[in-house]
Amino acid sequence: MDRSHTERELETILEKSRDNIMITDGEGRILRAGSNCARIYGREIDELLGVCVHELERAGVLRPSVTVQVLQQRAPVQLMQATETGRSVMAQGFPVFDDDGELIRVVSFSQDLTDLQLLQQEYELLQQKLAQRRYPGDAETISVDELSFRSPQVRELYELLQRIAPTDASLLLLGESGVGKTAFAQLTHRLGPRCDGPFIEVNCSAIPENLFESEMFGYAPGSFTGAARQGKPGLIEQADGGTLFLDEVGDLPLPMQVKLLKVLQDGKVTRIGSTAPRAIDFRLISATNHDLHEQVEAGASGSISITV
């Protein structure tokens, strides 16, 4: 391929990616930076080129620096950053080695999670209001699709979902059984850009643990005794192009949490008995009536880092 074509491709990736991409040499000096630098780190690209990430870390522009960690560990690193602009950023860094094993580049990807965290806080405040206030008996009844409600607080929740639904953000719905988490998950799907795709609902507490992996990930032909001759797509694969709704996610087995997280990070799923990953694209919505923070503290549940 013509070198100029490669340069244009790289420039397009840097400019158009929703992540902020940064490339440094083996000493941490910035060679290229994405167009989101100003928004996330408060620095224009021209201010960053040629600067060493150690200097930026000392100056508090980003702390800690994922590139510094990669240079020290010579391995991929993922961490949360706090920037001097007051933003919360998830950063991933990957080392690049030459044929002699020398570390020659570090490529990092940064995602700004600040706005999504604010939305989560707003949702939690609405949940608190719902628990503290009684519904007024004379309020006007509002109907949206198959939902009817008269509470001003639920109206606020509906307006929040209207703002979240057009995004690709993963959602975690918390609340007691019977408050309508499934209905709101379906509403979010219908309001979003994947409304024409499938809505796959999985009750994590209803599938036996010994069958969970084959049900979620599917299996290749002849992968185990009793397997269907043609194989079977899993529930995750069936959600391609739509929404995967994990109800009672607090009951998700710990090994499945790790495997599901890898699917979300890679955007690929591999059936049992196969070595060929399949690219998938779905939105994740989870719901639980458990206090996940308490479960993590008690060691009864893994840290489900798939929600925003």
Automatic annotation (TrEMBL):
Cross-referenced SUPFAM superfamilies: P-loop containing nucleoside triphosphate hydrolases, PYP-like sensor domain (PAS domain)
Gene3D superfamilies attached to this UniProt entry: P-loop containing nucleotide triphosphate hydrolases, PAS domain
Segments forming domain PAC: 73-125
Parts of the chain that traverse the membrane: none
Sequence ranges assigned to domain Sigma-54 factor interaction in this UniProt record: 147-308
PAS domain boundaries: 6-50
NCBIfam families: sensory_box
Protein name: Sigma 54-interacting transcriptional regulator
Native organism: Marinobacterium aestuariivivens
